[in-house]
Amino acid sequence: MRFEIAWIVAVLSAPFRVASFVTPVTRRATLKTTKTTSALYETASSTVSLETLSANLEKTWSEAQVTKVSKVKVGPTATSRLGLIATSPMNQGEVMLAMPYDDLYVLSPSLARNVVFKEYLPGGYDGWTGDTGLIALLILNEVARADNKGIHLPERKPALQDFMKAWIQALPSPTEMVELHPYLWSEEDQEILQSSSTNKIYRVLDDIDEDSAWLEERVWSKNRNLFPETIQWNNEEISCFSQDGFKWAMALAASRTVFVGGSLRLLPFMDFCNHDDQAEEVTGGTMGTFKTTKGAQVIASQKYQAGEEVHCSYGPKSAADYLLEHGFCPPQVFKTAISELTFELDSEDRFYDDKLDVLEFETYDSAPMDPTQSFDVVSAPGKDGEPDPAMMQFVRLCKLGSTDAFLLESIFRKEVWGFMSLPVSEQNELAVVNTIVDACEKALEDMKECGEGGPEVCTQIRESEVRALTRTMEYLQREKEALDLKEYYQERRLKDLGLDSEWSPEDDGLGDDLSFGQTRLPGGADYDW
Q1: Pick from 266, 263, 261: nearest CA to 27
Q2: How far apart are CA 280 and CA 96, in angstroms?
Q3: Which terminus, N or C, of the chain has the lesser number of Cβ atoms within 10 Å?
Q4: Over 80: is that where the pLDDT of 518 sits?
C-alpha cells in the first residue's frame, strides 16, 4: 500500500502533457547562418578547429564500428559547418550509410525513460517538451560524461565511449548556436519571429522553461555531482544541467533527430548529414549479413564522386517548421505558402462532455484526439486556399449544436465523427466558415503589428503566411456564398433511406382496381383498433 501511494504521488508531481494528435516529424538541421563560411570557421576555431573535431570523430568512429554500411566520413563543408563526405564513388539508389538501432549509442526516449534516468524521473514522466526533451536530457548527460561526470549509463566499452565523446565535442557550441538556431536568438529577434508566424516560438520557449524549472527543482539540484550546472567542453566552460544548457540541448535535439522505426531517434554520426531538397529522407530498413538487424539508412539520390558532400532530405514541412526545428529555410519551401491555425473545443459548450467523449473514443483507432488541434492552411498550385478536410471536420464538431445536437445522442456515438466529414446543416456550415475566417483575420492582424528589422528569414516567412491566410479567406468567402447549394445531413439521410423523392400513387405499383384504403394514400387506412 505504501508503495502504491508513493508511486501515485510521484506520478502526480511529474509534469504531464496530453500529446497532440498530430505527431510532428523532425529532422537534423543544416546549421546555416547569415555569416560567411570564414566567419563560421573563426567561431569554431576559437576553441577547437573543425578539422581537428572531424579527424577525432573519424578515428574513434572507425574503432567503435557503429555502422553496418559506411561510404562516408564527417568533414568540414563549404557552406554548412560539418557534413558527410563521400569516401568512394556511389551510384543513385546505393546505401551510403546504415546504422542499427543500438541503445548503446543511439539516443531515444525509451533509453532516457527506461535506462539512463529511470531512477531519477517518476514513472510516466511526460514533460511539455515531449520526446525531444528526453533526447535533450540524454545529450546533456553525454556532455557531462565527456567531462567524467553525469550518469554512466548505458555502460560502454572504452572505444565506444571515446566515439561518443568525440561526437559530442563535434556538435555546435552554445556560442555557435546563438547564430544558428532561433531558440538561442536574442529576445529582439525572437519577438520579430513571434509576430511573423502563427507557429509561435514563445510556445516552444515556454515549454522549455517550464520543463527546465521542474527538472532544476526536482532532479538537477538534488545531485550536482551527477547533474553539473557547468562543465569544461572543448577548452571552454559551458552550461550543462541548467536552463541555458537545456535550451541549447533542445536546439540540438530538435535539429538533429529523425522519426524512424516508429520512434524519434538521434543517431550519432548520421546526424551530420545535411539537407538537400532533391535528396532522399532517412528511412528505416534491415541490414547485416542476413538482413535481420533493424536500423536507419541514407540512400544516394544521385551519383556522388569521392570527396563530394552527400545529402539527405529533412522531409516536407512549412517554412516556420524548418526554421523552428532546423534553424534555416531552404528556398524550395517558400514555393508553397503554409500557415497554421489552432482551434479548441469550448469548455463552456453545453455539449462539451459529449464532444470530448467523441474525440477520445470515436475518432481514430488507438489515437484519441486532443480538444485543441492545429491545422495547416495552404496556398499552392492546385490547392490555393482550399481548407484541410480534417480541419473542417474538427471545427464542425466544435460548432455542433442547436437543432443539430441530436447527432450527439448515444445512438449516433459511433458514427458522429464520420458525419462531421461532410456538411451537417447550413447553420453549422456557416458557423464553421465564420470561425475559420475569424481565425485568419486575427492572425493577419497580429502580423501587421510586427516590428521592423530582424532576421530576413522572418520577413520571408511572414509574407508567405500572409499569402496562405489570405487565399484561405478568399476561398471560404466563396464557399459562404454557395452554402445553399450544398447537400447536408438530412438530405443525405433521406437519400440513403430512399425517401428523397415526392410520393405519388404510381410509386406503389398497385393496380387501379384496388379500392380506397388499399393504396398508400395518407389517412386511407381503415383499421379497427
Answers
A1: 266
A2: 11
A3: C
A4: no
